[in-house]
Specification:
alpha/beta, Rossmann fold, eight-stranded mixed β-sheet, 16% strand, binds adenosine-5'-triphosphate, binds magnesium ion, P-loop_NTPase
């Protein structure tokens, strides 16, 4: 037809050129998760990377909110004395029971520490700076690595997924989180030093599997703060995929100022800017994790 460009194979039925996502794999749509007929026991997932500022807390908040939007009952654990998760979800940390009280045993019932958030179906156990003293207090405890696991066992039946937002360290708190978990996600920022330290993290997960928690699985590596306009970001992602192959989730979270803006507003991006591509990326992440079987 006059004026029609020859676009080659893509015009032949059944031979459409596949579109590739940022991780180099063909782009796929993941189906909306089917509603659950019953709830619990929870699959427990740690978001872990000893490198700071890679998107652990942002992912805990937004993945949690999105899974709750899909009808999952989600409990987020703030396991960082900085309390960024608690602040990001706008919950009380001052005159409230926190995860510290539960670890130390000064509060016995974890449900007393649970707070609801503005997102229906997303609850949180908060933390504040008290938690920074926990490692020192717990160091002489019997079975000090399994304390969080014992706390979470008491509430696991009420939730479909429990997300633990770890602090940027591989100390005793993070070992507690890994020991309590069925799976671990590693958020990685797409910048030059992203891979530094990941070998040590993987080694730590292997040690926990060997000595404390034989069932723990690496659920996936999530590339965050990806900027497709920079060669640098694309190169880093390529190296991450070379190093970790299919463990790298197909969903990639782009870099956008909407995240800091949403944090200031104390709301997940799915509420703050539901039509923004970043909110859509977290929805896609939730669907991919359900498709992979990491979440019910
Ligand atoms: N995709 C993104 N694009 C732009 N900014 C982001 C993105 N994800 C997170 N941020 C911002 O980067 C900063 C660090 O993110 P976040 O707090 O989630 O990282 P973290 O790994 O939990 O950090 P820490 O190790 O200190 O706990 C925050 O200011 C957050 O708003
Ligand atoms: Mg954090």
């Amino acid at each position: 037809m006059a004026g029609t460009k020859n676009t080659g194979r893509s015009e032949l039925p059944g031979l459409e050129t596949p579109k590739f996502g940022p991780t180099g794999r063909p782009l796929r749509e993941f189906a909306d998760p089917a509603p659950l007929k019953s709830h619990g026991p929870a699959r427990i997932i740690s978001l872990c990377n000893q490198k700071g500022g890679v998107g652990k807390t942002t992912t805990t908040i937004n993945l949690g909110a999105t899974l709750a939007g899909y009808g999952r009952r989600v409990l987020a654990i703030d396991f960082d004395p900085q309390g960024a998760l608690s602040a990001g979800l706008n919950v009380n940390t001052h005159d409230a029971l926190t995860i510290y009280d539960l670890l130390l045993g000064s509060a016995k019932d974890p449900s007393a520490a649970i707070q609801h958030t503005s997102v229906e179906g997303l609850d949180v156990i908060p933390a504040n700076i008290d938690l920074s003293a926990a490692e020192v207090h717990l160091v002489n405890e019997v079975a000090r690595e399994t304390i969080l696991a014992r706390v979470l066992r008491k509430v696991s039946a009420d939730y479909d997924v429990i997300l633990i937002d770890c602090q940027p360290s591989l100390g005793l708190l993070t070992i507690n989180a890994l020991t309590a978990s069925h799976g671990v996600f590693i958020p990685l920022e797409c910048e030059f030093f992203a891979l530094r330290g990941v070998a040590l993290l993987v080694e730590t997960i292997d040690k926990v599997r060997d000595r404390l928690n034989p069932a723990i699985e690496l659920d996936g590596i999530l590339a965050t703060m990806y900027d497709p306009r920079t060669l640098h970001s694309r190169e880093v992602l390529e190296r991450v995929v070379d190093a970790f192959g299919d463990a790298v989730l197909e969903t990639v979270i782009g870099r956008t100022v909407k995240f800091p803006d949403a944090s200031v507003a104390g709301r997940p991006i799915t509420q703050f800017a539901p039509e923004h591509s970043a909110a859509k990326a977290y929805k896609q992440l939730a669907r991919e994790l359900v498709a992979r079987g990491a979440v019910a």
